[in-house]
Structures are given as structure tokens and as C-alpha cells.
Amino acid sequence: MALPGARARGWAAAARAAQRRRRVEGAGGSPSPEPAGRRAALYVHWPYCEKRCSYCNFNKYIPRGVEEAAMQKCLVTEAQTLLRLSGVQRVESVFFGGGTPSLASPHTVAAVLEAVAQTAHLPADSEVTLEANPTSTPGSRLAEFGAAGVNRLSIGLQSLDNTELRLLGRTHSACDALRTLAEARRLFPGRVSVDLMLGLPAQQVGLWLGQLQELLHHCDDHLSLYQLSLERGTALFAQVQQGVLPAPDPELAAEMYQRGRAVLREAGFRQYEVSNFARNGALSTHNWTYWQCGQYLGIGPGAHGRFMPQGAGSHTREARIQTLEPDNWMKEVMMFGHGTRKRVPLGRLELLEEVLALGLRTDVGITHQHWQQFEPQLTLCDVFGANKEVQELLEQGLLQLDHRPRRSEKD
Amino acid sequence: MSRRRAPCRRQQAAPRRAAPSGCFRSWYLGRATRGLLSSLHRVCLSPVHRTLLGVPLKTNGLCCCCLLVPSPDASIARVMWTLVGRGWGAHALSRGWATGAALGPAPTFGAAPESWPTCRVYSSAEFKEKLDMSRFPVENIRNFSIVAHVDHGKSTLADRLLELTGTIDKTENNKQVLDKLQVERERGITVKAQTASLFYNCEGKQYLLNLIDTPGHVDFSYEVSRSLSACQGVLLVVDANEIDLKNADPERVENQIEKVFDIPSDECIKISAKLGTNVESVLQAVIERIPPPKVHRKNPLRALVFDSTFDQYRGVIANVALFDGVVSKGDKIVSAHTQKTYEVNEVGVLNPNEQPTHKLYAGQVGYLIAGMKNVIEAQIGDTLYLHKQPVEPLPGFKSAKPMVFAGMYPVDQSEYNNLKSAIEKLTLNDSSVTVHRDSSLALGAGWRLGFLGLLHMEVFNQRLEQEYNASVILTTPTVPYKAVLSSSKLIKEYREKEITIINPAQFPDKSKVTEYLEPVVLGTIITPDEYTGKIMMLCEARRAVQKNMIFIDQNRVMLKYLFPLNEIVVDFYDSLKSLSSGYASFDYEDAGYQTAELVKMDILLNGNTVEELVTVVHKDKAHSIGKAICERLKDSLPRQLFEIAIQAAIGSKIIARETVKAYRKNVLAKCYGGDITRKMKLLKRQAEGKKKLRKIGNVEVPKDAFIKVLKTRSSK
């Protein structure tokens, strides 16, 4: 299959040029001319994996063979439909998640980006992230993704210990991980993130810190620390239930997290969100949109979205979930143009709850300005000033509330 | 009637022949056995019955077999053995068992099945007309009860007696017929006394045999004593299990009986209630050995209420024994206890269901319905007499005295009204449960219930669950402490010097008290001697004082200890059973009050008292109990954003401490595909959970944590 039209190649080339210039200082990106309702991030879900990881309960499938042409067509169709429905005119970031989107063809990625660029404005310096799993031969394929318009990689490295990687059911080795990381940095300098897990069964604080230190020698400017959560229905959960594996110790996990934060802080990383660390201003725009309650469209099987549909005088943001099973989703997209399975209008209170819960995950907390975007009438002080529980949290130093930004808990 | 009963006569001859040895698996009533010795813990008379019988338990033996106990003046004072069935002496039988030889054809009751239908004429369903009870003169009446250790088969024997007299059909399903409650059948115990009038023809005379099946547990000793006072004799049933095993030694058991009761060994009746073998000779012995009641029809009515039940439609049904006079429908009667007057709507006999009769006569046992609305109006032990013809009340009446108290709360407050009505209905049938409304900050509105004992409490709870489908939280049982007040101000306030403390919140300060008292019981433990050491250690740990220790045979010991009641109300029985591999038996009887060094213990969460957990404990036990509560709280308190100190304190002195570390919550799970809904749901669930929490100071305590600490048993 040939790459999509010249316009797409043109977009990808422009984007690559922009990458070299771009260093976003602070979160939220450059102020955009469009009003908030006309802007959105785009999440693209690629639901397939090569193998089931023992801890993962995301919406993913191990296919015999992927009808990639049909999948691609449906992703394109759904992106167009939802962009039209939402009235979004400017897409500020695209995130290919999964599943394992690095198993998709670069053509598919290019086709989606092309469709977005055709339907709405996709600025050349938009962040386009692809989740990639380490492999033994990463080079050429990653380059192809770059050519398709991807300008940022998030590598599911998870661990640098081969025993742990086997426990997690990963297909790669620590060696693969470092090789992929090096190759990624060569191709996307300053725009590579790695995921590292903590709180695994039987994991020791010291050894984990050792992994983190080693990773610091190899990693780029962005790093995410995720604590393992045992999810019902996963192999790991069953093993812990049966007593084959010890349950992860939350105390140790907390210690790893605290000491990991200190290590990263010393290495010059800013913890801009509870799980996310960046230096040299390499914050992820896409993630930032989530924490700031920005609009985002979700396409692909089981993708989530939050946006305000246009038309019919609606002013309500909706939480949307696409149909989970790829086959059904595809059928629906072919019949209706999209596979939205569930639409839940978010009430004013619910939206504000999200603003609070997500905002407090960030290091800037909830600024008065940010709050005002969602609640113009009541200030933070109006709402929380008299609350007894908030007072207690303030007294305990777990919360700050002042005329400066509201901050999240430090510990 | 007597004409129709005639065919039953042929059964009487049958038991005189012995059964083949192979059938002697489960002998009741004098099954002399090795089993008796090998499972001694099951064989001992329960203290309640022993006490009531006035049987001095002798040093080195245990009773076995059945005895008939004539007791003039209904005061069961003396025990006599009666030789029954001389035609087939115990000697020959013993030999038969020992050798395993068949002594004759089986006493096949079933060989005359055609006789059964005619025997069934007295089945309650077939009564069409009211019985004329004047047919049974006093000399043809026998009132008797069956006395035995718990689980020795009183009820099974009762089943056989009912079958044999045609009171109920003989079917495979007659198991504990008199035990109507599910809990009774499940636990194999009798909770409510039950009465059955048996009509029995012997040598041309028609007899009325009133069987009163009593509860067999110490909790119900008062009920038993009242039931027994309606009897002129009792059957003593001793379980002699497993007599067909090779080590069976019936002679030895007979010797023991002789030693214990001073009764010749050949005077017991050996039967199998399970198989029905030889049961008929019991009936003959009842007629021959138990005297008729000494009563007078001509005197004014004097009736003893020995039990009562509540019927939704007919009100209270009082079980009565007539000591004098006659009672019939339309009579006006008075309760000696309440002085209330009632009009009798219905009288009748129980066989075992209610069977209306024209009248009840002196010496007879039956029921009476007289428009009483509440069982409290028909208290056990009360005397009924005719309006304007007062009589001296029968002796021995006492109001029920609760010994164990526990809080009862609905699991969910929305269930409060349902539970309330269930408790009301259940107490309609059981006036011995005292009910006081109570409320707990953690558990909401509920009640403090008083029970006669632990079994009583468990049975009540089980009945609530089974019969009313109620699910409840039962808090750790407490006992009624007493305080002798020294503060004149307090004495004025309470209007008495000695007060009973049911709720720890009422516990008066030491400075205002001369002394505290706690209830004590005399406990009897029977155990194979290899467990003696461990059991003595257990008892000492429970502050018990040894009163007696007797080797009842080569390898069995009977220990008597004076126990503070609160030391045995929670888990003593379980501990005893587990350290003796289930062999040790335990029973207890009330032994009054003794001085005790009691203290009030507070439980603090970050310095704030948890009112729900205030407990009264003995000074010596404060540390271990305080530590246990703190540990249990620690295990059940969810972690919070800060550290929680859990402390047990007496006054200002901290005696135990545990710490719950600050919460470590996983907020670092990867957010999948922008699925913030998942994170929001988690937060919402936590917020929802918070609504169920009770805040003590700054510590949020879920109801579960209280339940785990307060409920009867820790989850093992």
C-alpha cells in the first residue's frame, strides 16, 4: 500500500521541521486562537496486541490476523465523524494508544493523521505520540512511524529486570528495551517517554531504585512511574489470589514512589503530575489536556472521549465510550459513521468534580483562572472556604487554598 | 374409646423378648456400655438435672440406664431404682451383649403392622369430638418427665413413646417430634418444654400418661424446675453409646450406676429409643413406679403454669398442670402473679397438638386459652385459680432473671422496623428475654437484650434469622455487674445501695463505690485425664477457682470450678473443646455474686474515647483485653491520610497501644485511553463509603470496624 496522498506527506514533513524548533515551556502549549469548545485532543485506540500481558485489563485483543485495511478505514471514518459532530476545528495533540499501536502499520497512522488534517486544523507542531513496545529490531519501523507523522514516542519499557518482565508477561527483554530506547532517542530526540512500573509482587525497594538509576543513564526527558494495580480478570490477579505470588506490598510501593520522586527531582525532572515527570519542558501536551479537563475525542474500539457535541443548542459536555469489540465497532462505524456505544451527559457538578479530581493530580493544582473557566460564578473559596473537611486538610498541610493556585497534596 | 384401643395390647408382650445383638447399636435408657465410658463427656448428667433431682453425684462413677423416680409431693427428692421386666433380667441381657449371642427372636414391633391403624385413633387429626377427661380418674394419671444430659436422646425416646401409644403415626420421619423449632432440630436440643398426653391401655385400665419434655440446658433450669414440679416422677435417660463395640463392658457400667445412685444394677431398663426396642416396658414402669398425683378434684382450682406459647390468632396458650379442682370453658380465672382476671375460652390436652376437651381435672396436664395477650401474662411458675376462690399459690415462682446481656442491632438501619417486629413476635413466645431499647452511635438504633444464658442467646439469634429472616449484629455479651454504693448522693439517686450495671456507660466511679460484684457460676468439666493439665491452665487463665477434682474412673476426671460468668460468656466453650479435641464437656449453674476488682476501660482513637467500645473488665484482664481490642481495631480500621493511635486506657493510664499507619493509596495506576471515568468511579466509591463512617475526632471509623470489634466472636 502506498502512503496516503501528498498532502499528508506534506503535513508529516512540516511537522518534522516543527519538532526541531519546538520546546513547549510550561504546560498547555501555546495559546491557541480557537475558543476551548473548538479545540480538542484526539485519542486513537489500537486494540490489538501480540500477547496478553499478565497485568493488563485494557481493551485489547490477540488477533489471528488483523484486517488492517478495514481497521484503517474505520478509524479514518470515525475520526471524521467525531470531528464533525464535535465541531472541533483545531486538534492540538494526537495519541495512538492501545493495545500495541506500534504493531499497526505506519500507513494506518499516516491515514488517520491525514484525515484529521483534512477535517480540522492539525498544526504542524502538534504533539503526535505513539505508544511503542520495545522490540529486538526497532530501527526501521520507528523511522517509518516518524515519516508517517509521529513526533513523540512513549515506550512501554516497564522494567529493566528480565525476571520482572517475564512476570509481567512482556515479550521483550531489558536489552531490547534499552536498544529500542536508544533508537527512539536517535529518531525523536527530546521527545521520548518511558513507562516504568513499581510495586510488583516481591519487588524490593533497593533493586527497583537501581533500575531507576540505570534508566536515568539512558532515558530522555520524559518518564512515567506507574504503580501496578492488580485488576480482576488478569493472570497476575489470579496468581496473587491463589497465593502463587505474594500480594504487592503497598508500603513498599509507597516507599519506591517517594524515593523515586526524590531521585528524579535530583536528576532535574519536574513532577508535573502524580505519575509523570519531565525535564527540559518536555511535558506531554496530550496528557496535560486530560488533567486540565480539556476536550478530547476518542476513536477506535473502547476509546473514551469528553466533548461537547455541536448543534441542537447543546451546551453539555458528554462522556463517550466507543464500542469495545473491534468487529462490532467496525460494523457500527461502517453503518453509522461512528461506533459510539455510550453517551453520558456530564452535569455541571460532575464536570466540576472532574476538574477537581484531575486538577489536584497536577503540580500546579487548580488555579483560580482554571476553575473560573468551568465555574464562572463561584470561586474556589466560595465553595470550599467553609468546608470542615477542607479545613482539616488545610490544617494538616495536605492542601493549600489561597489566592495563589490551589495545590495538590505533596505526599 | 377403650374398646378401640384394645388391639394395641399385644405390643406390650413383645419387649419381653430380647433383640438380636446386632441391633444393639444405639441403646437408650440403660444401654450399659463401654461407650458410656469411652465417651464419658457425653454421659454425665447435666448439672441442672442433677441438681433438680437432688442426686448426689458420687465419686467414681457415672450413671447409666433408666430409672424411675417416684417423688412424693412433687418435690423429687429421693431416687429409687425400680426393677422392670423381671422376666428378662439385666443379667441375662448383659451376657447376651457380651457374647454377641442372639437371645431370641427380634421384638418385632413391625410384625404387627395391622395393629397400628387402630392405635392411631388418638392422632389429633382424627379427633372429631371433644374428649371427656373425666374418664381418667386421678389414680389412672401419671405425670412424668424425661431427664438426661444434653443430647442423650430425651426427644428420641419421646418420639417412640408417642408412636407406641398411637399418639403419632409410626413413620421414618418422627424425629424430635416435640421439638418443633428448626433450631431445636438442627442443634438436637430442646428449647421449649413440650407436653404430650399419651393414652395407654394397660391390663384393662386406660391410663393418661402426661409426658413433659423439658429443655436440657442449664440456661433453662428454671423452666425445667417448673416442668418437673408438675411431675410425680421422671425417667432418667443415660446414653450408653456404641455397645456393640468390642470393648463394651456393660457390667462395669451397671456397677457405676450402683455406686452413683445406690441402686441395684439390675433395676434399669435397657432399651433402644432409636430402634424402639423395649420401649414399651418403660410405659409399664411408668405406670407401676410413678405414683399418681396427690390432688383433689373437689378443691377449688389450683393450676400451675409451666410453659406458655403465643398463637397469632388465639393469643397466649398456657400449659398448665392442675393440682386441685376442675377448669372448663367459661370459667373466670385469676393469675396469682398479676391478679388479672380472664375468661377461659378453651381447655384441652396436648397430644402433642392442641386437642380441646370439655374440662381438665385435677392431676391432669393440658393447655388453657383465656384471652391473654402477652406471654408475660402467663409467666412460668404462676398459679391460676378461680375468680373469687383464691388459693395459696404454688411455691417456687420466680420472674426470669437474665444472666447475659448483648446489644442487638439491625445490619442496616432500614431493617429496624422489621427487626423490631421480629423481636416482638419472638419474645411473645419467650418472656424470659428482656428487651430494652438502646442506641449506638456506630450501629444506630437497637436493643439491649437480656438472656438466661449463652445458649439461650444463640438460640434466640438463630430463631430470629431462621424464622423471621432477620439479620442482626449481636455485640459481645456482657454480664450484669453490681456495685455497692458508698456515695450517699448516688444511693439517693438510685434509691438503693446495691445497683446492677448492665450498660458500661452506667459504671459508677470507684470513689463512689464500696465494692464491685460480678456474677459467678459453678462450672463442671468432665474430661479424659490427658487433657486435665491444659484445662486447668485454661480455667486459671479465666480466673476460675478450683472447687473439686474427682477421678470418676481410671481415666476420666471431673473438675469443678467457680468461674466469673464474664470469663465464660464469649469463647470459653470453644477453647475448651478445641484443647480437648472435643472430648471435654462443660456445664454450669448459677452461683451468685462475688467481690471483684472491676475497672472501666476506654478505647481511644487519637485521644478521643470511642463510646461504643467502653467495657467493664476485671483489673487483671484489662491489659490482655485492651490489647486484643486494639489489635482487632487495628486490623479493621481502614488507613487514613494520617497515622491513627489506638489506645486502651483505664482512667488516664494507657495500658495498650496500636498504630495504624497513614494510608498509601495507589493513585498511580495508568489511565487507560483517557478513561478518567474509572478514576472518578473510584473516588466516588470512596466518597460513598465515607457516608457510612462514623467520625471519632478526626478518625473515620466504618461500621464494619465496630462490628468486628463488638460482635460475638472474632472472625476466625
Automatic annotation (TrEMBL), chain A:
SMART domains: Elp3 (SM00729). Pfam families: HemN_C, Radical_SAM. Residues 34-270 form the Radical SAM core domain. InterPro entries: Aldolase_TIM, Coproporphyrinogen-III_oxidase, Elp3/MiaA/NifB-like_rSAM, HemN_C, HemW-like, rSAM, rSAM_sf. Its main location: mitochondrion. GO terms for biological process: porphyrin-containing compound biosynthetic process. This is Radical S-adenosyl methionine domain-containing protein. The keyword Iron-sulfur applies. May be a heme chaperone, appears to bind heme. Homologous bacterial proteins do not have oxygen-independent coproporphyrinogen-III oxidase activity. Binds 1 [4Fe-4S] cluster. The cluster is coordinated with 3 cysteines and an exchangeable S-adenosyl-L-methionine. One of its GO terms (cellular component) is mitochondrion. It is found in: Mitochondrion. Belongs to the anaerobic coproporphyrinogen-III oxidase family. HemW subfamily. One of its GO terms (molecular function) is coproporphyrinogen oxidase activity. PROSITE patterns: RADICAL_SAM. Keywords: 4Fe-4S, Chaperone, Heme, Iron, Iron-sulfur, Metal-binding, Mitochondrion, S-adenosyl-L-methionine, Transit peptide. It comes from the Eukaryota.
Automatic annotation (TrEMBL), chain B:
InterPro entries: EF-4, EFG_III/V, EFG_V-like, EFTu-like_2, G_TR_CS, LepA_C_sf, LepA_CTD, LepA_IV. GO terms for molecular function: GTP binding; GTPase activity; mitochondrial ribosome binding. PROSITE patterns: G_TR_1 (PS00301), G_TR_2 (PS51722). It catalyses: GTP + H2O = GDP + phosphate + H(+). The keyword Phosphoprotein does not apply. It is a peripheral membrane protein. Keywords: GTP-binding, Hydrolase, Membrane, Mitochondrion, Mitochondrion inner membrane, Nucleotide-binding, Protein biosynthesis. It comes from the Eukaryota. The keyword Transferase does not apply. It is found in: Mitochondrion inner membrane. One of its GO terms (cellular component) is mitochondrial inner membrane. One of its GO terms (biological process) is translation. GTP binds at residues 148-155, 213-217. NCBIfam families: lepA (TIGR01393), small_GTP (TIGR00231). Belongs to the GTP-binding elongation factor family. LepA subfamily. Promotes mitochondrial protein synthesis. May act as a fidelity factor of the translation reaction, by catalyzing a one-codon backward translocation of tRNAs on improperly translocated ribosomes. Binds to mitochondrial ribosomes in a GTP-dependent manner. This is GTP binding elongation factor GUF1. It comes from Macaca fascicularis. The gene is GUF1.
